[in-house]
Fold these 2 entries.
Entry 1:
Amino acid sequence: MSISCEAVLAWIRAAAGAMALHKDYLTQLDSAIGDGDHGANMDRGFQAVLARLPAVTAADIGTIFKTVGMTLVSTVGGAAGPLYGTFFIQLAAATAGKMQIDLSDWVAALQAGVDGVVMRGKASLGDKTMVDALTPALGSVKAAAADGASLPAALRRSAEAAERGMLATIPLVARKGRASYLGERSVGHQDPGATSSHLLLETAAETWANAG
Amino acid sequence: MKKLINRPEDVVTEELRGIAAAHADIVKVYFEPNYIVRADAPAMGKVALVSGGGSGHEPLHGGFVGFGMLDAACPGAVFTSPTPDQILEATQAVNGGAGVLHIVKNYTGDVMNFEMASDLARGEGITVESVVTNDDVAVQDSLYTAGRRGVGVTMLAEKICGAAAEQRRPLKEVAAVCRKVNAQGRSMGMALTSCTVPHAGKPTFDLPADEMEIGIGIHGEPGRTRIKLKSAAEITELLARSVLDDLPFKRGDAVLALVNGMGGTPLIELYVVYNELVRICTGRAVRIARNLVGSYVTSLEMAGCSITLLKLDDELISLWDAPVRTAALRWGM
């Protein structure tokens, strides 16, 4: 079972759809502990990505991810731009030249993407950031791959781990980003970055549920 | 939402067109990516100063582009940091061969985007130094936060370093002056009201009519404590004490005092605050050698103020007094 270029494009379109659909929700989460622009920024970035996808419909998966990453870097702004930009640029490096990827390729790509986010943002697990959704998602997909799970099943477990990680940010005190200025007052709010990261992994699991 | 705008998504572009039209003798504005440069850029042989940040803090930073201050400013979307491609192009546009100094406010997004941009600029053979300002005493500086925010000191650093660059001092020296200003300056702000980001359409936070937010940042992010409204004397005391005790400023120190409006506070109130600040500083034998009262580092229509004190020496005083000609700050020429 594998993921084709077409399936990767379908995921990016689904992710853009999810960012548009949840734009106000992400902004509302960000208003509580940040500056209230996460939804608008992510939506602006993914709309720009959609506009550039027609140019890469015949390209390899690495080129598709690179286009997504470079577009997000130049259109999202804030902290999310460099972080999600770096995430996709790292996915691109791990999938360069490939016309399809299997589960082990995806595990390697996600590992590179998560490492890139950690390197750029210098956040650790439990800091109430994107990393709290991404790191458990990576751990779960690795474990699922080791268990011999199918690609769709592994992606499902990965998305569920991202969701648990996202919900687990609620009681945390933020230690990175603007929310950290609030100290204890950040407790009780779900992290918007972990939420948008969950949306990405959830749309991947949905889009690739019938991969192969 | 009640604002003098057309469509929220056009606010920044239309603002930049207005700036270009109003100040054509001082600046030139580029679009997609957006940046503002000195009309005579690049100034050959001079260290170039580039800053930037989210829009909504006007006149910061675009209003400070011109002789004796910034060479370029990169405005992001409202309250959103600029992107690396913008910062890179601005850096290339103003590079006069003597290197470029990036003055970056310590906000996670600003720091990351400037970091990516300086990596790209170095890759193109441009010498870049970066100084991150972090003067906001309201934030605990520890391993467990993003660190203190860069606020009022940023504009003082832009003015003072701009003067140092006009003297054709080398990049290392201009950067050292910037670090000194940041090390010797402290700020703290407060808000009487919230503010509304145009594309969000509603206030960033709710503040009851009889309460105020102490330790506010400049992006409408809530501060550290919320307390009942007090008099100007008590509020100024609260802010000034935190600022004075932090450096700490000592008896006999000469300082530059900036009483800054957050965008929605009339000058009459800022002077009431300045009057209180003079009383407090006099009581502590801290001498205000220079001052600036007005709205320079703002948060859209937020009502409130911030107080910045910068410890001065002869070098900083002469650089502060040097001629400057920008849209928002001009003297001596």
Entry 2:
Amino acid sequence: MAQSQFAIETISLTKVFPDWWGRPRVVAVDDLNLQIRRNEIYGFLGPNGSGKTTTIKLLLNLLYPTRGAALVLGGGSSDPAISSRIGYLPEESYLYRYLTAYETLDFYGRLFGFPSAVRKGRIETLLDMVGLAGAGNRQVGTFSKGMARRIGLAQALINDPDLLILDEPTSGMDPMGTRQIKDLLVELARRGKTIFLCSHLLADVEDVCDRIGILYGGKMQVEGPVRQLLEQTGKTQIQTPRLSDAAISRIREILRQEQAECEIIHPMDKLEGFFVRTVTKARQEMQPTSGVGAGSGISGFLAGKEIVRQPGILDQLVSVRPAQTTVKTEVDTTAVTTQPAASQSLPHQDLLQMLTTSKTEVPLPLTPTESSSAAAQEEKPVDAVKEDLLQQLLDRRKKTDDTTTPTNHGTRGEKSE
Amino acid sequence: MKKVWAVARNTIAQALRMRIAGVVIILLLILLPMMSMIMIGDGTLLGKLQTFSSYGLSLVGLMLCVLTIAISTFTLSDEIKRQQIFMVVTKPVCRWQILLGKFLGVVILDVFLLLFFASVVYVLTCLIPYMAETSPQERQRAQNEFFTAREGLKTVVDETELRGRAEERYRQLEKDRRLPETMSQTDVLTQLFNEERIREQSIEPAKSRRWDFKGVRPAADPNTMIFVRYKYDASVTPPDGQIYGLWSIGDLQSYEQGTLTTPIYNVPRDAPTRVVQEFAVPANAVTKEGYLGVGFVNSPELNASTVMVQDLEVLYKVGTFTDNYCRTILLLLIRLIFLAALGITLTTWLSFPVAVLVCVSVFAVGTINGFIVESLESLGTGVGMVYQFTIQPLLSLLPRFDGDFSPTKYVVSGRIVRWLFLLRAAGETIGLKALLLMLFGMLVFRSREVAKTAV
């Protein structure tokens, strides 16, 4: 089949589950038209029972559509030529409890028809990659859910797939694992793979996905690039290192002149980041554990593919991705959130200049809003801090106690080493 | 093929984890040696050998059939139930490859278990003569009648001739106007035919009878024996229940013409009625052309009643016990292979308990298939049409495990399983029935939604 421009395409995909008598009972997927481009990380969201998993099963021919069609990599996934390029992680890892981790991966490797030398090499690197190198000879029946999940992920990657279909990849994983997987997904996308990620852990989706779609009642409710959907264009956020009270008062003074209201807070670190740092520290001190190991970097064989994606494209698509930010040990930044009015009027020339120039690079932190729409309320990361603005702000130190409940923090760029 | 093999290996690993496999293995390992100790049979060495080998093989066959049914119905249905199949069918494996792999896995396991337990029965059987206190005669008899592989030639009753005779008698009766008015023509004919059949077997007092066997080809060894197997019946059972007969074996045709090409052996035999008997004569009674005459004289001094000689058979050694034992095991394997195909096919659309039920039913019908067919046919005329178009084709679709297809029959009477028969059985049961089943299963599985959920 000719190379389709879409990795996944569904045309009026509909699935109706009948009852015992064959009468239509539940419309699980309703006239769904998905178009997922190659080399994209697509987040497929929705509450429980919204039809996410059913859609995946339709894509993989585990279920047959009532109406419409599902094309994967330009064809039907029952075609071995197509399915050999797909990696699939089901919502739960349905493993053979009596096989060891190594045997499990070996079995799936055999299903792809790989010769034993290839299987051996890949299994070893994959086990290493998912942090189970020490547990290769343990039966997977003895694994915790998170460990089983890691094996599930490893089996999905054993064929170096072009398309990864992941159903709740981070469910049951510890935060370290979640972080590793998110990093892995971004890296895989960088290596030219398409990732179809189905999750209701919104933070995970937001961190890695280029585009998301929200499904409800089997229908697509909203779809678009994450940045476009989440950006609050009416707000501006400035983040600086700790400021003196004097400086803060001076900023307040400036903003008052701009007729903008602001709240000044100390941003909270995300618990995820804190957890990752703590465990990383413990690992560096070589404390013993019977659980999963650290896991190495991405498996070598996965790099085999030509790199399609430009290094910077993720950054453009999602948000700012600083090259390498080391883990911060102390958080002493102060976030300044300004209200819309601030960016409209322009008395203070130089500050305004800085605020607007920084806008493209500094995503705006948001305070939580009403909790009705699922994804749109998620916080936005703050990564880069403009040096010169900081300097300027520091120059105008002033004392103030005006700190409110902090909510903001960086996520995306904060890579653990 | 690599992919099929991967599924097969996994199926074996899965089956070995099932407790039932362990239970069957342990049970057989306890029961078989116990049986070899306590089974006596009719008290003779031959009887002990026959009883043990018969029950031992039957037990192994039954246990392995049960195990095969359990594993073959479990392996696929469990993977579907536990949804492990999701991660298999989404790999570049065709659905038929999965089914074939499962089938192969079960069959390979069967082959290993059958080999093992058949060897256990074999070794125990061979040990029995050394364990029991027996006379050399008994040992010799066991050698001749059990530790051997014999070809059997049966007398062929020419049914068309019998029917012809019956029709002739019918016409005679019609001409004489002596036909019973209350009976239909078919009933009269059936009765006449049965009378003719009995008359064919009957030897009145002071009468004799000769049966001719052609194509008797015993081994060239001068020590080879020819065995005559028969069963007496009598029109009136004598008071002591014994029939006294005189047999003569040899080239009777030439003898009656006055020449003597082979020795003629005269064997007096007295035996109870309705019990299968056997005696032996040296093989030089057979002519070079393979002719053997068997004569029977109903001596009027000893018997007062008409004697019927039934199931007359001439047996002679053509192979070794070990070789023949292997062939009977193959016969057993055919059965297991069929059940494996059946179980896996059923679970492509049935759940585990339903599939087990169907499998056990098919197995049960299979073990008495011949009996059902015979009894239905003898009930015959009244159910004719209905039977012919409903039950008969259904029964012929089912496998046959009894009668000629029963492995114990061959081992017990030291009778050879002919290769041709084995091939035919394999072709019919595996090549046709099991293959059709598997193809059907693949078709069903291909169109099945493995993730189907009931609402």
